[in-house]
Design brief:
Elements (H helix, E strand, L loop, with lengths): L1 H15 L8 H9 L4 E4 L8 H9 L3 E5 L3 H14 L6 E4 L5 H12 L5 E4 L1 H4 L2 H8 L3 E6 L19 H8 L4 E5 L4 H10 L6 E4 L7 E2 L2 E3 L3 H11 L4 E5 L3 H13 L4 E4 L5 H12 L5 E4 L12 E6 L6 H8 L9 E7 L1 H10 L5 H19 L4 H8 L14 H4 L4 E3 L1 H13 L6 H8 L5 H5 L16 H13 L3 E4 L5 E4 L1 H8 L5 E3 L24 H18 L3 H4 L2 H10 L4 H4 L7 H21 L14 H15 L4 H8 L3 H13 L7 H7 L2 H13 L5 H7 L6 H15 L2
Parallel strand pairs: 1-6, 1-7, 2-4, 2-5, 3-4, 5-6, 8-14, 9-14, 10-12, 10-13, 11-12, 13-14
Antiparallel strand pairs: 15-18, 16-17
Helix pairs in contact: 2-3, 7-8, 14-15, 15-21, 19-21, 23-25, 23-27, 29-30, 30-34, 32-34
């Protein structure tokens, strides 16, 4: 045994230059050398690859490593060749090779020079590949990223399902399955599918104690990402987005703002993808903006930032992607931006898919929604998901919930009201309707159903719609309610919910962080993920605005709106040019009203010796101004706003919001032709007069003031007319 131990450690030192093993590596390698089937569950960064690489180098024959990504294979093969004397020691066989290259690979394998052959599952299933592998000595087969076998895994690949029967056709050799993520359900699925129920299972703890897990509201997300990356200058980072389009847009936006970034997604040419990946590994680029196509097994130890622009489709994806940070044991910031709308969007994608797939997708989404909205330690929740117990005291404030605990309250009474209403409305309504019903807000839908005359209407009017939305979300997370995808999210009471109705009991709910951020709230990332805001300057700017509004006899919001003033308290603009970088301030608005504000801020900065964060000025992409010009041109042509929206793939509400943003930043827009069609002159005058005398341009307050006589859409349109004529 001692001799074998000496040989093992000598091989480790000779091949890889290490003098000791990490975690379970040694016992896994011994088991493989003994010819056992093994199932290895080991988190990213724990040294999973070495578990099959070392025994492959130590044994006769060639080890076949089945791997799902061509880019990953190249990365792994390059790494192994770096340890060997000849490039023949490791090869890959996939569709990227020419016939000549494939022939050379087969010659090296046949001659016994190749110890590791990486094969894509698509290549493995070809008859010619099976025939070739039958003709050579295979030491063992390793199935990397084995979670791809399970439809419950986050990268399900149907071709992985056939691996066992293909391997059987080649030779009866030991099999090793490896994955960095596997819930108990996925684990069983993998073992069943590979016929490995008797395999030795080696499971390393999923806890990555060096990673910090904060969730932030998705408000001005691009601006937050740019500011945060700039505050971490020179550090390696990955930003994940769900769509290729968003990857392209964000990569360009980061470049425009002086960040060394490149895009990576499956839609790029293979050569371009490989080039971008190599530039990231070689540190020629700091940040990769990517879809989930990037990163599986990418061996870069010093990734310091992993940012999710969008919440992933499952908790496994989230864990796998965040796991690419801090693989060397150093710091790793894993920031995710969240809006419940993202989950609803992902739910809509499930429509039209087979029922079984919808069921799986829905449960995975419930898990990720539950994670981001939970008040408990995020590390505890992740580890619980992977079947591990964890004492949250050991988190060491390495998640936002431990660092900044949320306040809890008794939810029994609210849950009773909610379930009573869902039941009374015969489980036919979606969240939005239920929230409005509970808080007693009448609207067109409410009136058409005559729900505003229901005896329970307004049963929870002491709380607003946002509060009830939070209660609904936590009810779904707690399993009392479920959303029916087939009927676009209609709320249904679950068995657990029925039990609660019959025997109510104490359930603590938590005051959520507001992930549906109001339009006048500005959130800015600082080094520790909290908000930074100059309250003293803000009060002075409010006072200045008030004095100018009195002098000019116009409402304060006509001058600058609150989000603009708040942004001034973060960027400290001291010139008219810098004013145009402020949210909601265009060139016209800056030149008309900016001078006294810039002068006040300049004096304040000098007096208080404030170091201005000028690197936080976020530039916009040119094409956005192109869309603005196009919108204004269409208005000049007097096109109906609905038609404009249709051409841009937007709703009427979104078009009106876009016009509002243009007007708020100081550009005149004439939409009288459209307003005249929907409101008579007296109605327009009444709303116009209201805004002339109002202290605020809050549309919600205007709606309440007119007791619902006008829709929010109508009020917003007249507000646009008012701002165009008065402010610009």
């Amino acid at each position: 045994m001692t001799g074998q131990t000496d040989h093992l450690y000598k091989s480790l030192k000779d091949f890889f230059g290490f003098s000791s093993f990490k975690g379970n590596q040694e016992i896994v390698i011994r088991s493989i050398l003994e010819g056992n089937d093994c199932f290895v569950i080991m988190p990213t960064g724990a040294g999973k690859s070495l578990c099959y690489q070392l025994p492959a180098l130590m044994q006769d024959g060639t080890a076949i490593i089945i791997s799902p990504l061509i880019a990953l294979m190249k990365n792994q093969v390059d790494a192994i060749r770096g340890f060997g004397e000849s490039d023949a020691i490791a090869h890959f066989l996939n569709s990227s090779l020419t016939k000549t290259q494939a022939k050379r690979v087969k010659e090296d394998v046949t001659s016994g020079k190749t110890k590791m052959l990486y094969v894509a599952p698509e290549t493995l299933k070809k008859e010619e590949t099976v025939d070739f592998l039958r003709s050579v000595k295979v030491s063992f087969v390793a199935v990397d990223e084995a979670h791809c076998i399970s439809e419950w895994g986050h990268d399900f690949r149907p071709e992985y399902r056939r691996i066992k029967q293909i391997i059987k056709a080649i030779d009866d050799v030991p099999m090793v399955a490896l994955t960095a993520t596997a819930t108990p359900k996925v684990q069983l699925d993998i073992q069943k599918n590979l016929n490995m129920l008797d395999a030795k299972v080696f499971k390393t703890s999923f806890n990555r104690e060096n990673l910090f897990y904060p969730i932030l509201p998705k408000k001005e997300v691009e601006k937050q990402i740019i500011r945060y990356i700039k505050s971490q200058s020179g550090k390696s980072g990955i930003v994940y987005c769900l769509s290729r389009k968003k990857v392209e847009e964000l990569a360009e936006l980061l470049q425009v703002n002086g960040i060394n970034a490149l895009p990576y997604h499956a839609g790029l040419e293979a050569s371009k993808r490989a080039k971008h990946q190599d530039m990231f590994l070689m540190e020629e680029v700091d940040v990769i903006v990517a879809t989930i196509a990037f990163g599986m097994g990418i061996d870069k130890p010093d990734v310091r930032l992993v940012i999710h622009h969008d919440i992933p489709k499952s908790l496994e994806s989230y864990y796998q992607e965040t796991g690419r940070a801090g693989r060397d044991g150093g710091e790793g910031e894993c920031i995710a931006f969240y809006s419940y709308k993202d989950v609803e969007k992902l739910e809509k994608f499930l429509q039209g898919k087979p029922v079984a797939e919808q069921e799986v997708g829905r449960q995975l989404l419930n898990e990720i929604a539950s994670y981001v909205e939970t008040s408990v330690c995020r590390r505890k929740m992740i580890l619980h998901y992977f079947g591990e117990d964890f004492d949250e005291k050991k988190c060491n404030n390495h998640c936002d919930n431990c660092k900044d605990p949320k306040e809890k309250y008794e939810g029994k009474e609210y849950l009773q009201k909610l379930l009573k209403v869902v039941q009374a409305l015969n489980e036919t309504q979606r969240s939005k309707h239920i929230c409005a019903f509970l808080s007693g807000k009448s609207n067109a839908d409410m009136q058409s159903y005559k729900h505003d005359q229901h005896e329970l209407f307004g049963i929870g009017k002491d709380k607003d719609e946002h509060f009830w939305n939070a209660v609904i979300r936590q009810s779904v997370v707690n399993g009392l309610l479920e959303k029916d995808i087939e009927t676009y999210g209609v709320l249904k009471i679950t068995e657990k919910g029925e039990e609660f109705i019959h025997t109510p009991h104490s359930i603590m709910l938590f005051k959520e962080r507001d992930y549906k951020v109001d339009d006048d709230t500005t959130i800015v990332m600082t080094d520790n993920g909290s908000s930074a805001f100059d309250e003293v300057l803000y009060k002075r700017l409010i006072d200045l605005r008030k004095s100018i509004s009195k002098e000019k006899e116009i409402p304060p919001f006509v001058i600058f709106q609150e989000p603009s003033l708040k942004d001034m308290c973060l960027q400290y603009p001291i010139t008219i040019e810098e004013m145009t970088n402020i949210q909601g301030v265009g060139t016209g608005k800056a030149s008309r009203y900016g001078a006294p504000f810039a002068a006040l801020i300049k004096d304040y900065v000098e007096t208080n010796e404030i170091e201005r964060p000028q690197d936080l000025v976020v530039k916009s992409l040119v094409n956005k101004s192109g869309l603005k010009v196009q919108l204004i041109q269409n208005i000049d042509r007097k096109l109906p706003l609905e038609d404009i929206g249709q051409a841009q793939g937007k709703s009427l509400e979104e078009v009106i919001d876009d016009i509002g943003a243009i007007v708020a930043s100081g550009t005149k827009v004439n939409i009288n032709y459209y307003i005249d069609e929907i409101l008579d002159e007296d109605n327009q005058e009444e709303i116009y007069d209201y805004f002339s005398e109002a202290e605020t341009d809050d549309i919600g307050l205007a709606y309440d003031e007119f007791d619902g006589d006008y829709t929010e859409e109508e009020l917003k349109l007249v507000w646009i007319k008012f701002m165009s004529e008065m402010a610009n």
